[in-house]
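Summary for the lay section of the report: proteins are chains of building blocks that fold into shapes. Here we show the chain for Reverse transcriptase zinc-binding domain-containing protein and then a coded description of the shape we predicted for it.
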Amino acid sequence: MAFTPWFRLLHDCIPTAALQHAWNHSVAASPLCRLYQQNTESSFHLFISCSLKLNFWFSIFERYSLLGKLLTAGEIWSVLISFVPVDKQAIADTDALCFFGAGISRVWKCH
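The coded shape description reads as follows.
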């Protein structure tokens, strides 16, 4: 269930390497991404901008014929943290939120 990671994401409480490094250097020796050691591992990086995660999101969009809906990392991030679709006309419907929740849950489990 995506409630816990999504709730943590919305409240900026994801234990990223950058956050753990700031809190306690013995927990995370470096603020860099744990997979590639190139970029700072922020929540945005952990869920979206890491190339592995961005490819994951794009593969989901392709699988469900949604590639025309969200094309950039920033647009995906906007939906995740605001529940508002890119066109900003209405709150995302329940099916779309479930779709994103499942994506967040998978990234959380696999990271």
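Put simply, here is one thing we learned. Helices lie at 3-10, 17-23, 43-49, 51-63, 73-82, 94-110.
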